[in-house]
């Protein structure tokens, strides 16, 4: 802000001084306008027009996120032909309670225990009272009648301590902490409330550590199966480990999930993980630059991200082409889904040519509205582009990756599978904060990847965890499904 003395000094210095002062003010004003525009653009970003998750929108957002899905005209709820779930009677209940009338409804005489038959049946499904069961294992010393030698029986491998918790308790502890995302203290509280057993947080940590060690070979096989798969979804998200920013990377299919924690986000992490550098199938991702470094595989882009990017450009520029691009992508998606239901594997070449032509025309129209920036005399380095121009460059350079779902029906429209795999990990951090150690984070990732794989394949998680502590690991199917 100029003072009155500074203005008077410029006035007394003459016309040139006044012109120089005004030019300075105009430059400052232009810089401030640019900064305000940038801040307003950032402020207007939320989950409907950016890659930010809905949880970051906050309670102050008054705009409701609009789904890109079209209305089907069907009523909400279960549809015709949908196989629902209901509570049905069982033929052989565990317990039967008979309710007899004590007096005759007609004359009032006592009925006693005379002949009767079932008039109506009702069944109640409930959980019996739970309590901790203590099993004592005794090593018996036997004397041979032939030679008199004494032989002592051996304990099962899983019974290694004088007093210890069994497979059921350990499986529950891992389940509470890793699947239900309970912190250590709350895991102990649940065990106390449900089973009446008081245990320490160290017991939970030891159970998780033991489980993670047992799952090392399973994790290795899941990783090998992903490398051999046709289509794999890749994504990453930030996570806090020892109060420092780390990155959680995921690779997955509809049947398999693999997690890996690493201090880095880019190529160093991908090289250390070792899946994408040797992968030869189709990689579905969100266009993060490091993924493009690997050209032994094909690439497909997440169109859910593109739709949100197009929404942001439409709101910022008020131009029509972003909306037309969104319409085209959704139209192709609907046609692919229709053909897939008819057991089709790809669109015919005429349809593909028509969609490709519309794509090219829209791209050319948008590029005219947003030409590349011109380099000023003596200007060096990479020129800064507008968000619209950056998006157009991506749509132009990676046309085949954007429309990969049109060329091969095995390729999904979006990368939502990977985002779903990451979502619960963010919930874990919201509940418990950061991981206290990198070893704890590593164990959590390995167990969670195993649990996620089991759930994708419909395998009961709690039974599998119990079996693991009993010495029998439940192996998921490792079929190389897209």
Tell me what the structure shows.
This protein has 482 residues and is α/β, with parallel strands linked by helices. It has a domain at 303-371 and 385-414. Helices cover 45% and strands 8% of the residues. The protein contains 16 helices and seven strands. It has helices at 4-13, 15-43, 167-179, 184-195, 201-214, 216-227, 267-273, 303-317, 321-341, 349-369, 387-397, 399-402, 404-407, 416-432, 438-456, 461-469, and strands at residues 141-143, 150-152, 231-241, 244-252, 257-262, 282-285, 298-301. Strands 5-4-3-6-7 form a five-stranded mixed beta sheet, sandwiched between helices. The protein has a two-stranded antiparallel sheet with strand order 1-2. A hairpin with a 4-residue loop joins strand 4 (244-252) and strand 5 (257-262). It is elongated. The mean pLDDT is 88.
């Amino acid at each position: 802000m100029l003072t009155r003395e500074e203005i008077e000094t410029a006035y007394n210095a003459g016309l040139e001084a006044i012109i120089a002062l005004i030019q300075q003010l105009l430059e400052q004003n232009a810089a401030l306008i640019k900064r305000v525009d940038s801040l307003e653009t950032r402020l207007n970003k939320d989950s409907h027009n950016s890659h930010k998750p809905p949880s970051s929108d906050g309670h102050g957002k008054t705009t409701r996120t609009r789904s890109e899905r079209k209305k089907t005209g069907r009523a909400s709820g279960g549809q015709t032909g949908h196989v629902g779930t209901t509570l049905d009677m069982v033929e052989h209940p565990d317990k039967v309670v008979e309710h007899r009338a004590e007096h005759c409804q007609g004359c009032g005489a006592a009925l006693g225990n005379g002949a009767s038959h079932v008039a109506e049946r009702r069944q109640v499904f409930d959980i019996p009272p739970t309590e901790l069961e203590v099993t004592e294992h005794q090593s018996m010393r036997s004397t041979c009648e032939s030679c008199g030698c004494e032989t002592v029986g051996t304990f099962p491998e899983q019974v290694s301590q004088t007093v210890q918790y069994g497979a059921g308790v350990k499986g529950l502890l891992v389940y509470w902490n890793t699947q239900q995302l309970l912190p250590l203290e709350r895991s102990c509280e649940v065990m106390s409330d449900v089973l009446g057993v008081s245990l320490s947080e160290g017991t939970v940590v030891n159970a998780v550590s033991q489980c993670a060690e047992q799952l090392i070979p399973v994790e290795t096989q899941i990783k090998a199966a992903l490398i051999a798969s046709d289509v794999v979804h890749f994504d990453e998200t930030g996570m806090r480990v020892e109060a420092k920013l780390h990155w959680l990377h995921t690779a997955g299919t509809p049947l398999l999930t693999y997690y890996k924690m690493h201090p880095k986000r880019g190529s160093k992490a991908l090289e250390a993980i070792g899946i994408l550098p040797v992968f030869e199938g189709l990689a579905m991702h969100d266009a993060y630059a490091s993924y493009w470094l690997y050209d032994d595989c094909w690439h497909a882009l997440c169109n859910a991200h593109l739709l949100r990017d197009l929404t942001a450009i439409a709101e910022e520029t008020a131009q029509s082409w972003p909306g037309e691009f969104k319409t085209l992508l959704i139209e192709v998606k609907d046609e692919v889904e229709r053909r897939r239901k008819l057991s089709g594997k790809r669109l015919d070449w005429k349809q593909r040519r028509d969609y490709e032509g519309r794509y090219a025309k829209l791209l050319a129209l948008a590029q005219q509205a947003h030409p590349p920036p011109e380099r000023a005399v003596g200007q060096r380095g990479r020129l800064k582009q507008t968000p619209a121009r950056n998006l157009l460059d991506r749509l132009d350079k990676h046309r085949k990756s954007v429309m990969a779902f049109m060329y091969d029906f095995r390729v999904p429209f979006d990368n939502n599978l990977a985002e779903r795999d990451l979502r619960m990990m963010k919930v874990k951090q919201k509940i418990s904060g950061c991981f206290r150690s990198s070893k704890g984070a590593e164990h959590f990732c390995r167990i969670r990847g195993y649990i996620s794989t089991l759930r994708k394949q419909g395998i009961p998680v709690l039974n599998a965890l119990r079996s693991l502590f009993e010495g029998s690991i439940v192996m998921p199917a490792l079929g190389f499904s897209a």
